[in-house]
Amino acid sequence: xxxxxxxxxxLAAAYIGYLAAGGTGPVTSQTIARGMDAVFADLINxxxxxxxxxxxTGGKIKDASSLEETAVCRQCRNIMAVPVLRLIETDQAYVGxxxxxxxxxxxxxxxxxxxxxxxxxxxxEMQEIGRWD
Length: 133
Fold this sequence. Notes:
By secondary structure, the protein is α+β, with helices and mostly antiparallel strands. 28% of the residues lie in helices and 18% in strands. It contains three helices and six strands, in the order αααββββββ. The strands form two sheets. A four-stranded antiparallel sheet has the order 3-2-1-4, with helices on one face. The protein is elongated, with a radius of gyration of 17 Å.
């Protein structure tokens, strides 16, 4: 969450707590706290951060990039990674705003053609590079 607007880290932590508590039912402070208690217990007992997140979130969060997706800001005309949280039951997405201008961003889908946001002509090809398990 480095270099992200204030609040993105809190939202990610709440999401992790919700998933660690089972990721079903209403999102309440009690549910989030119960999940975070389980996360902190693992960390206190010496488990690594990403091993804990992977285990407690059912593999949904394995590393920092698990919370981000590729998006475009039509105002700044930039492509960037933004934090995205998806609710398990509804697949509703909460998409982070542009870190430069604060406006809404649009998630770029991998299989959809992407028009260059900078010039508006030609297509941009998305490739994933350097992601290893």
